[in-house]
Predict the structure.
Amino acid sequence: MTPGTVTDYYLKLNELLASKTPFVSVIVVDSVGSVPGETGTKMLVTESGWHYGTVGGGKLEKKAIDEALRLLEQQGHSQSTHFVNWSLSKDVGMTCGGMVKLYFERHLAKTWQIVVFGAGHVSNALINLLVHLQCSITCYDPREEWLAKLPDSPKLKKYLENDMPLVVRSIPTDASVLLITMGHTTDSPILMEILRSRTFPYLGVIGSDAKKARLKQDIAQAGLPADLAGTFFCPMGLPIGSNDPAEIAISIAAQLLQVRDQATEIKQEQELSRPLRT
């Protein structure tokens, strides 16, 4: 990598930082034998894939890009840096017989967004769990006294909101959304507004099988497709524990993590199936 290219690399890196674009820097820190990239070569990878630079091209670069994308997809995970030692023949499938050591560093990682409608007993127990995870939580409720009972945390934003269905249009597309309001009469309007126009990685409604049946009726009355009943969880949470708010909260948090990690695995498999960049 020539001095001019190094300068361009850091210019590109600073541009990504300034625009708050999540990315991973990849650097060849050591090599042994015949390898396609010299020690010190650098590459930048964003959520769209390759952005700038190179670590040698071909299969090695494809594998490095896939690894960088895996890091970027780990919303809420603590890992942000790591090294890999790859045998080009065994690990990468190249005819070169060398070894390469790469350093990956994630910058401006996406925050796992969680939106909770309702600030009652279950929401309080759940949010007290979630604030210990790497996430950003937003809670809406029309009752100021219930919002005041939620924990004070830089990870939590509390909003006093009387028209909660109106908020739906402003929710980030990648958010996990939970409806835990005062009951069916307040959960259903929010859910219908979501089903009309939005999709989220996770959508759950607190309740029982009986409530799910009632929500199916609401979907029909709203003139929405019946198959939308399969796009949200109700009952919400894994089938563990009792009806105690703390145990319900644990079951919901577990399901949130399960769905998040399953989505990450699917995206990784999709990235691995992409053709090599030429």
